[in-house]
Fold this protein.
Amino acid sequence: MIKHFAIALTLLMLSWPCVAGETYSTASPVRLTPAGRNWVELTLKKLSLEEKVGQMLNIRYFTDFRNFGDDDYRAFRDQLRKYHIGSVTLTVHVDGPVLLKNPPLEVAAMANRLQRDSDLPLLIAADFERGLTSRVSFVPDFPDAMAFGATGKPGYAERFGAITAEESRAIGIHWDFSPVADVNSKACNFSVDERYAAG
């Protein structure tokens, strides 16, 4: 009985008309409203020098699922608050040559939890050189930036950047460390995945 109810509920949700424009924001440049500007000015006036310095710091944390009540996470959360950290770079664990990627829902859950546990809004960053697939599992796979450059069509790179920005924003990432202007001047300058795939 419960199984049939769950299936019926899922079908109902899938058939529900999509009204994303009414519920969610569309991708566009972030613009500070007058109320937002006022909040920023008032908040900055209230911060101590130590808190302002903390807002300039960026630390690393991992995207894998955590029991948010366990000692490791609570210790991290306490340090985040103690030092008034303003930015967190989300990354993944590595096992030798393998990046231990996590699905988008786990990344979003981590980003959302960090925001809830921070006294001030966090700037959350990640290194998505090949789109989200660089650090997230079960997402579209894109080639390295060099492949877009090889096409000679800047529009492809621009569209790739837009897709990556939209997907990043959807899971709570505000700042992507890609694209970058790396110069591939060494033959051994491959990503970890490429080095091991090449043997």
Observations:
- The mean pLDDT is 82.
- The chain has nine helices and six strands.
